[in-house]
Amino acid sequence: MIHLHGIQHRILEIGDLSIPPGHTVVTGWNGGGKTTLLRLLAGLELPKAGSIMFEDRKPGDTECGWVNEFPGRNMLFSLVRDELSSPLRFAHIPCDEVARKVGECAEWAGVSHLLPRRTHTLSGGEQVLTSLATALIGRPQILVLDEFDSYLDHGTADAIDEKILDSGARYIIQCTQNPDLAARADRVLLLSHGRVHAFGPPRDVFSGLERCCYYPPSWRLGRGTGL
Amino acid sequence: MELAFEAVHKRRGDFTLRASGIFGPGVHLISGKVGAGKSTLAALAAGIMAPDTGTVKKNGVSSFTLSLQFPEWHITGNTIGEEILSWGLNAEDVLMRVGMKGRDHDDPLAISRGELKRLHLACICMRKWDLLILDEPFSGLDCRQKQELCRWIGEFRSGILLICTHESHFLPPVDFLWEMRDGVLFALGRVPEALAAWKQAPPLLKSLLCQGILPRNITEDDVREAAWKIRG
Asked: What is the ipTM of this complex?
């Protein structure tokens, strides 16, 4: 379980919140504090007040994969192959093992053809797939994804979503603006003005939002139509 | 007024884009998978990239701009106020429009991507263009902002508007549909007739088409109205 207690940080004000293992979607209006929360969970920032614990460890002491909402900002290397290899090279993994894992991970993410490319020539979708593969290559226990799906077409997003759920990460914390993706998660955290507006299974969170654009379109249109 | 792609070829590594077609006045939606060439087409249309062979001509177009997929690439100001001024606009008017009143001294690189996108699109939309190219304008926006952008596009009356997007829920009314398939531009035609040929159609729209139902257009309301026909 991830425990947040008395968090006060920038716009965020979260009293007590416990996030179980599984797939948690964070959603809400632009500027509502989603990225701030994700950065805290990824250990990229420390809260001004309050505490976060991943089971018995602090975020910074936990193996975490992170995909930035600006994927290009996180890239350290000019070649896709080097970028993808970097978490393993930094961990001093032997070169032949790095090469094997890079090949496997690139195939998993559908970016094998991009390995020789320069990172600055990648499209948004290609950048985010490369970032995702880099985040997952070290097999982290926690995967934090900040709106990576907004760079992908629906077919690619759905296919990669299934792979992420099957990646072995114990906690997947994903920010998205796609209500249909949120509807498939184990639970949804709806943030508004830095506070938790609702948290729980998708059915519970969305039940009072049928008149709002956040209500999953597939639920709205699917009822009685078979779509 | 028209934007013409004449036998355009552009090679980038293993990827080759091929495009021929004329974009006249109206709203054109260009869809395609990741890496299909939407952003390359947008860059060629704006003239920030030159084709290897073929030509891109802007006939009768006196003002044009490209909104890049990454809003941070547009930033030239140190503050939000400076950034808005760089577009020749009044900071107070723009901030009021995007609900960010009083934030003119904030660092544009320190606000969220959704807020930055909203700010950037407001600057674009508050000016008049003969040719406007929007590359993934919906990416990073929340549903309320997507609906707002759809409303603005719905009011676009004069000029040529190209929208390169993979958005699948909140879509604006469009006049013409195009598709990038593995680097090749396909003209599908005028909406709604073109919808039947749309391989990358959003899932709900595709389900309707499979049942022989043709929505009037591709907006949320059009899809909902068409879906209700099933319900009867």
From this structure: 0.87
